[in-house]
Amino acid sequence: MYKAKKLGGKGINFGIIAAFATFAAFPFYWMLITTFKETLDLLNTGNNPFIYNLPPTLEHLEMLFFDTLYGKWLFNTAFVGVFVVLITLVLAIPAGYSLARLTGRLGEQLGIGIFLTYLVPPTILFIPLSRVIAELGLQDSLWSLVLVYPSFTVPFCTWLLMGFFRVIPQDIEEAGMIDGLSRMGAFVKIVMPMSIAGILTVVIFTFTLVMQEFVYALTFITAAQRFTVSVGVPTFLVRGDVYFWGSMMAACFIASVPIAILYNFFVDRFIAGFTVGAVKG
């Protein structure tokens, strides 16, 4: 009886996990199968949409890479993402650590105030920011995005890291300082290695935001060769009421797979970073 209950419980758990995994993986399956489907197969409503009714084709990939600037858009997205991640880490790590060690209600209120700035809609901010970009002469330059994106990544990441730094006992730092380390030395040699989960969370979260952002990229960039993926794909693969579904799905699949693999490698640390920051922040 006990074994039957145990097997039944495992079966239920397996069923729930299998259903959730299928639901989560379905968008990737749909993007992949649509990438290699012929247009006639895609548009025929009488066909089964989940299988290949006609032989697979590479025409959508050829269109994506030879009729658009998709490779250039991927490079632009990576270029902006790397610099925004670096700027975010340089600003958010010391800010989060300082707020975490700031005792009293002042530190808590400052942390909440910084987080609230993340909630300001980009559709409101891009108007004054466009003036700043114009004054700096950065119109139609990728550096405009490198300058603007930290305005929403730094506040959230500071709040996230602040919660993470708070769970690291100060006694450990003080023990290191008694052994001869300076405050900076204790931070670099003790706190930073213990905060890898939070830092990885910031890196993945920031890069994902850069890949998804649309409003600023559409506002500040006008030349096609300087588009990011989020703007270039819908601009060139949606022409009036004609949607190039195969090429669009190929573009989305190629751009999302590296992020999915990165999540998979660091999923434990990513979840730890988010849950610790959320609970203790």
Task: List the topology elements.
Blueprint: H1 2-35, H2 39-43, H3 59-66, H4 70-101, H5 105-118, H6 122-135, H7 142-148, H8 150-166, H9 170-178, H10 183-194, H11 196-212, H12 215-220, H13 229-237, E1 238-239, E2 242-243, H14 245-265, H15 267-280
Antiparallel strand pairs: 1-2
Walk me through the structure.
- With 281 residues, the chain is mainly α.
- Helices cover 78% and strands 1% of the residues.
- The chain has 15 helices and 2 strands.
- Strand 1 and strand 2 form a beta hairpin.
- The longest helix has 34 residues.
- The relative contact order is 0.14.
Question: Can you give keywords for this protein?
Answer:
single chain, 281 residues, mainly alpha, two-stranded antiparallel sheet, 15 helices, 2 strands, 78% helix, flat
How many strands, which pairing sense, and closed or not: the largest β-sheet? 2 strands, antiparallel
Number of helices: 15
In N-to-C order, the SSE pattern is HHHHHHHHHHHHHEEHH
State the share of residues found in helices, binned by percent. over 70%
The class by helix and strand makeup works out as: mainly alpha
Overall number of strands: 2
Outline of this structure?
With about 280 residues, the chain is an all-alpha fold. The protein has 15 helices and 2 strands. A hairpin with a 2-residue loop joins strand 1 (about 240) and strand 2.
